[in-house]
Amino acid sequence: MIHSPPLTDQQLRYFGGSLALMLVMFAALAQWRFGADGIATALLVLAVALTLVYYAVPKSRRPIYNGFRALTFPIQWLVLTVILSLIFYVVLTPIGLLLRWSGRDIRRQQPDQASVWSEHRKKQALSRYFETF
């Protein structure tokens, strides 16, 4: 699972409202688009019950949040993998191929330059390490 810094109480309260709103929106979608009255009712009951527990019992906020993250982790992983793969294969690979076919080498600033690396200066005074600029 992807690790993130712990959430503050304000962020957890915001998540609770967002979760309730999301469940209500899914209920409305189930009713409007699919005509599934039972699923819409179940989602509304779940939204109300979860919201009541979430805000009435503050100690339940973090476990509910962690459970939701664990539930949505496979979706998160899949979407992240697909997006990064698309960026690599649709954007970066064609740019690399075009640069290679054109003979351009981005490691060199000038065509006759061997490298962008500069020579190492030897035996400098120790006071130089205290100069920040």
UniProtKB/TrEMBL annotation:
It comes from the Bacteria. InterPro entries: SxtJ. Keywords: Membrane, Transmembrane, Transmembrane helix. The chain crosses the membrane at residues 12-32, 39-57, 77-99. This is Uncharacterized protein. The lineage of its organism: Bacteria, Pseudomonadati, Planctomycetota, Planctomycetia, Pirellulales.
